[in-house]
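Write out a record, focusing on structure:
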Amino acid sequence: MNPKIIFIHGMFLNPRSWDPWLGYFQKLGYPAESPAWPMHDGEPSSLRQNVPPDLGKLSLATVYRHYAVLLTRELLPPVVIGLSMGGLVMQKLAAAGQIRAGVGICSVAPNRMLAADWGFLRNSAAITNPFAGDEPYEMTPELFHQNFGNTMTEDDSNAAYQQYAVAESRQVLRNVMSEDGVLAMDLPHVPLLFVGAAEDEIIPASLVKRNAHAYSDERSHAEYVEFSGRGHFICGQNGWEEVALRVTNWLESHLVAYRS
């Protein structure tokens, strides 16, 4: 019997971004679902046109608690696969002992880990800008192409924007530098896989690798793998199936005890 897989989307996206992955894993016999962050449920085009009034107040703690409550309803701990901020939420759920295994794809790093990378610094400064207050950050096709779809053609990136992009709370990223972004990384933990994208303009692969290697318990497994020619939209751009296959193979090798 395969465990359930819970997919957690990242900032500026919603569950629709996981649709191809849901179908992929369901065909392999995995029960799978992708619950939305608070105020992120619905069609992305509608969410862009009608930004939820309280979106700018959404915090990392609220997002984390939302998934922590959802997971308490599961009979058995699920596998959690998270993209970007969803990867940090996955790590927090792992630290709380709520998951069977975790995959962080282009994951935001805990413990105030930073990177001397221009794209990372540019994006972080623009989103967390303190002078913007609680005003949501509204993604545009141009920004999406620059930061998510930088390894895609402009037409493909614009199509992905129309299909998947939403506005976002600045507060969620601001909170990463607070106590809400702190984890103990020297304790035993469930198997963790971290996936980096070599051309990522938002979360550089070097930071994802550093995140993976920061888990120091010798009895536990934390692995890093990197894909060349990919940007932050690694789960949706051409070739996403190769990434999903790598995740599948890793899961198969670490779920033997679960199935026995």
Observations:
- The two ends are 9 Å apart (CA to CA).
- The chain has a mean pLDDT of 96.
- The longest strand covers residues 192-197.
- The domain at 5-259 is CATH 3.40.50.1820 (Rossmann fold).
